[in-house]
Amino acid sequence: KNYQVVVEENRRLYNEVQELKGNIRVYCRIRPFLKGQNKKETSIEYTGENGELVVANPLKQGKDTHRFFKFNKVFGPSSTQEEVFLDTQPLIRSLLDGYNVCIFAYGQTGSGKTYTMSGPSINSEEHWGVNYRALNDLFHLTQSSQNTVMYEVGVQMVEIYNEQLIFLNLHTLGIWNTALPNGLAVPDASMHCVRSTDDVLELMNIGLMNRAVGATALNEKSSRSHSVLSVHVRGVDVKTDSELRGSLHLVDLAGSERIDRSEVTGDRLKEAQHINKSLSALGDVIFALAHKNPHVPYRNSKLTQVLQNSLGGQAKTLMFVQINPDEDSYAETISTLKFAERVSGVELGAARNYK
Ligand code: ADP
After folding, report:
1. Which of 48, 167, 207, 246 has the most CB atoms at less than 10 Å from its CB?
2. What is the ipTM of this complex?
3. Helices (H), the chain
4. Which ligand 1 atom is at minimum distance from the Cα of 117?
5. What is the pTM of this model?
6. According to the annotation, is 40 in a ligand binding site?
7. How far is 204 from 171, CA to CA, in rounded Å?
8. What kind of fold does domain 3-344 have according to CATH?
């Protein structure tokens, strides 16, 4: 296959899933109801393909008994990691056409963000989340086009906690020796050159261990930090020497639950305020992009600053909106869906009453 054919094929694949709003798409994923808990399940009716869902209010009071939402797609509780990835793959492949891509998982703690992005375990390929599958797929593609395009792939891992960036840097720790690719000039020493899926698995394993033993035991705080995995790709056409660059950011966001100010103080309050601020800033940026506003407020949080070059313009954005079906989570579920509705630029207005 020559270079152009690969590009055209990727473009076609991408266009097939390009619906609704230009470069911003929103997928809703409802995680299964975890058995063994003494809880009730919220009634949610949905149609996967056309992305509609109707959520019943368990209190059944007032006019507002049901709420209707529409996104690009809804994945129900029995959806597999593979199915979710199949609908994400074309977007990821557009990275090799030189696009920048951001994929977020948004939702309250326990709604399945990490499950969707990473999966429950690194060791079981069947359960791999979007990030391992994405890198695996990229390596397959880059290897199959080796004779026409030479690719370099670099990976960075960053945590954003209390508006501070914490880069995983295995070079300074003497753990990662693979030389930085020459051409992949992202001016940062935290870039790790990877050549295979095994490299990625190793890197992430070390990253997770490193997090867990870190001075601040960030692992325990993981639901209160944003975790960003960035993949940078540079491709050079061997015949023409023309160059293409793309980047993919896979973001497991901090839990979106609202903290009752009367119940927390000190560090927890500070964390909650930082999370609140950065999630609203992210919402404002995507909203501005969806509405093609001339001013996009990137400067309001570290998260949006870090992702500035990959949000907007020619970049493509996907948000996974994660839903916890426990009835106790109803209020958070509605607030999550409203956030998603706002960023998708497809606000359907007032709640409708479904009989
Ligand atoms: P979050 O990252 O939003 O805090 P997790 O990804 O840790 O949430 O998910 C919470 C729990 O629910 C975990 O035990 C996880 O394995 C389980 N879970 C989440 N999504 C799914 C799913 N689609 N299928 C099976 N179990 C899931």
Report:
1. 246
2. 0.99
3. 3-17, 81-86, 89-93, 113-117, 130-144, 197-213, 266-290, 302-306, 330-344
4. 6
5. 0.88
6. no
7. 14
8. Kinesin (3.40.850)
